[in-house]
């Protein structure tokens, strides 16, 4: 356009830094939301509280997200991906040993999104449910391929076993968390379920 000024190098750099900072701010909000949602539930965290925890004003929320539901889906996707990255480094017995523990049970904000929020997700939009379904599917694929099956196992047996095993692992954490923190039952549920799950793995084929 005639007469339009050409941005100088400083102005171009400022724009780039601003965009980069905006992206960093968005990621920080998602990370903060991911932890708070797991700790308090989707309905237990308001937008104002969430933004305050992230260090921003309430009004800044809608510069990054169209709605709280959008953030819920993105935060869940983020935390599910992180959980999956941790599972990728484990075999099935190792997964059970790490997952069905008191440490995981007590670490709500940093623990598995499935155990923390599947109950909440059941009451949310299809967008949020789809995010969970995709995360569950990726977890089943990752661990199902590692499930110790014999040479005569039918196709898909590992996946079926992992659906059962994952459901039991998540259920154990949910039941234990429903008990008071100092309850003997909270520990008993974890101990019994962990032992039973490990005992259900084929002994001869178990990965060490």
Automatic annotation (TrEMBL):
Q: Which residues bind DNA?
A: 46-65
Assigned keywords, A-Z: DNA-binding, Transcription, Transcription regulation
Q: What Gene3D superfamilies would the database entry show?
A: Homeodomain-like, Tetracycline Repressor, domain 2
Q: Name one Pfam family in it.
A: TetR_N
Tell me the domain of life: Bacteria
Q: Which SUPFAM superfamilies match?
A: Homeodomain-like, Tetracyclin repressor-like, C-terminal domain
Extract the GO molecular function terms from the UniProt entry: DNA binding
Tell me if Transmembrane helix is a UniProt keyword of this record.
no
Start and end of every HTH tetR-type domain?
Answer: 23-83
The cross-references to PANTHER family, in alphabetical order and at most eight, read: TRANSCRIPTIONAL REGULATORY PROTEIN
- Protein name as it appears in the record: TetR family transcriptional regulator
């Amino acid at each position: 356009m005639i007469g339009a000024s050409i941005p100088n190098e400083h102005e171009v750099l400022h724009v780039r830094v601003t965009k980069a900072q905006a992206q960093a701010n968005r990621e920080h909000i998602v990370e903060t939301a991911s932890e708070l949602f797991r700790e308090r539930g989707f309905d237990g965290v308001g937008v104002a509280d969430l933004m305050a925890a992230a260090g921003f004003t309430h009004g800044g929320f809608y510069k990054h997200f169209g709605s709280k539901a959008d953030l819920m889906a993105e935060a869940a996707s983020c935390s599910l991906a992180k959980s999956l990255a941790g599972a990728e480094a484990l075999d099935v017995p190792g997964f059970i040993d790490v997952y069905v523990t008191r440490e995981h049970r007590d670490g709500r904000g940093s623990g598995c999104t499935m155990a923390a929020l599947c109950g909440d997700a059941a009451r949310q939009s299809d967008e949020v449910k789809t995010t969970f379904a995709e995360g569950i599917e990726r977890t089943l694929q990752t661990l199902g391929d590692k499930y110790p099956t014999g040479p005569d196992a039918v196709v898909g047996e590992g996946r079926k076993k992992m659906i059962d095993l994952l459901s039991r692992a998540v259920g154990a954490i949910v039941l234990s968390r429903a008990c008071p923190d100092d309850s003997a039952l909270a520990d008993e549920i974890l101990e019994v379920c962990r032992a039973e799950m490990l005992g259900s793995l084929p002994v001869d084929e178990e990965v060490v």
